[in-house]
Request: fold
Amino acid sequence: MASEEMEQLVRREYTQGFVTDIESDTMPPGLDENTIAFISKKKGEPEWMLEWRLKAYHQWLKMTSPSWAHLDYPPIDYQAISYYSAPKKDEDRPQSLDEVDPKLLETYEKLGIPLHERAALAGVAVDAVFDSVSVTTTFKDKLAEAGVIFCSISEAIRDYPELIKQYLGSVVPAADNYFAALNSAVFTDGSFVFVPEGVTCPMELSTYFRINAANTGQFERTLIICEKQAQVSYLEGCTAPQRDENQLHAAVVELVALEDAYIKYSTVQNWYPGDEDGKGGIYNFVTKRGDCRGDRSRISWTQVETGSAITWKYPSCVLRGRDSIGEFYSVAVTNGRQQADTGTKMIHIGEGTRSSIISKGISAGRSNQSYRGLVKIGPRAKGARNFTQCDSLLIGDQCGAHTFPYQEIGNSSATVEHEATTSKIGEDQLFYCQSRGISEEDAVSMIVNGFCKDVFQELPMEFAVEAEALLNVTLEGAVG
Amino acid sequence: MLEVKDLHVTVEGKEILKGLSLTIQPGEVHAIMGPNGAGKSTLSAVIAGKDGYEVTSGTITFEGKDVLEMDIEERACAGLLLGFQYPVEIPGVKNIYLLKAALNAQRAARGEDEMPAPDFMKLVREKIKFMKMDSSFLQRAVNEGFSGGEKKRNEILQMLLLQPKLAMLDEIDSGLDIDAMKVVADGVNSLRDANRAILMVTHYQRLLDHIVPDVVHVLVDGRIVKTGGKELALELESRGYEWVLEESAA
Ligand SMILES: Nc1ncnc2c1ncn2[C@@H]1O[C@H](COP(=O)(O)OP(=O)(O)OP(=O)(O)O)[C@@H](O)[C@H]1O
Ligand SMILES: [Mg+2]
Reply:
């Protein structure tokens, strides 16, 4: 098959681009101490939280934006961004779906997220973020019965200050990196999960993030804590409407797993990638880190990344506890002019810690993708083990895939294995399928899904189906 | 049913088929033999629609339709099916999934509904048993880690399921042990009926002992230089290709 045909095959329109017309209570663009005070006040935060934010802000002022990633984008004007936006009537927020703005429900409908159905059918508790404020939280009672706290981070700051003081910033310190510092100063919402000792969260927790108001950056902050022997599976899914202005997104996610705890964090990310020339997409600069603080604890990141104009993201695990386990399973698809620099960091500190990394990158169109993985074995990490497998699949001949594995081994008893492959989508494979009667488009999706299988099987069931569908949409396009 | 007329095919600027003609009637089994590099695989690949071959002149028609105008999958759905000399591996895609997708794609092309899952399973079990393959092959990734002989059996398994009108088998006998040869031949023979035809490429008489051809062609340097009955294969086996060349040159 000729390469232009290949290109056509993977070109597609963003199907989830539309803007819902809900009046926003938006602050004028700009960032200074007053902005931060406004956000903090708007959220009804205590004084110590404002101080925490301001401290982060002052640290951020002294930092510069990282330049080492394999990305190319114009400098971001942080004074041109609006840092607060909430649907109106913040005070009397809806208590149930019936009270939710029908327009919002319609938006979810268009996105293929029939909230009520999905929640009821799949037994998923949904904390939906529309712009920066949680709109609806369901299944709270059932969770409360089990002793699980699942609420917005703003509520948590008001209602569980001790937990917040203890854990917020304990995994990703405010000064960790440029975007984390910015987030710490201006975050407006996100989720908080606390699973107490010995409790397995009775349902999968899910949040859908959307970015809607024009010119608004969104800065979520998510904190998940599992006490001893507690378990939780958290699902995060994202889509955004089509627009012209590049939008900055700088989230921070912190996970804390104590002894024998298990946190599984899955993401399907499908933000607007920009048009064919890369105009108008989302900039996604995320800091995600899990701390396996307790012995035998386990943190597992699974991600399917198909959106954004620019992605800069390295979900990481700090393996502090003895025999703790970190896992990273990733599928990243880039198309058009998307750029992604993603990967993971596994920091082995404790004895007998293990980590595995499976990364599948698919590049199509003129996109560029880099895998950047750090495996660091500290001096005390006796017998630590890592296995990394990093495969890239190229569709067409104008895209790129790069692999940057970094290893720092400070203990000679550690075993670190790395396997990497790069292949072009096999014309022979395509011909084989097509010569059985399968259309080109179905054949591509079949081969790509096969390529991603190791990762998809790590996703919760209903998410796996969604991810496959998303992949098909992403790579779908005009055969002929 | 298949008519190839004066076919000229070029690969990367080099002419491989140089005016090849061939007619196959329903119910017939044709064998094509010939030295390495003569263009045998090229012929079946061009009929199946593989990219990279330029047809500079000549025609291919199948049941009155212009094959060269059809997409690869259209050809398959019309009943032209190629059994590969070297079947490719497709990691992560279950064999049964490929079978199901192929069968349903072909049914859709005929305007039929998808085959209900229980019926499909029943059919597959029957066919895989016929091919004396373990059912675990259904759950494995397509051809991945299959031995040479297992790959060939898998090709025939697909044929049994898809029931092509014209099955083209490129060196289906290579890499088969004696028992497997028998199983593969039984599979192919079960496809034989008055409405179907088979085109086999082979180097050895051994296969033709099991699948007895009606017509044998000798393909040398891009042309069919001699055509005969099944006894021609025996003669080639004992005398080689030299005499055919001399005869055709004369
Ligand atoms: N992609 C290609 N590029 C260059 N030459 C090619 C290509 N494909 C086929 N050829 C050449 O075309 C000629 C015919 O090849 P073909 O595979 O059809 O032969 P064959 O008759 O099937 O031989 P064998 O008996 O060895 O299988 C060979 O000389 C081969 O090298
Ligand atoms: Mg050949």
Q: What stands out?
A: The two ends of chain A are 12 Å apart (CA to CA).
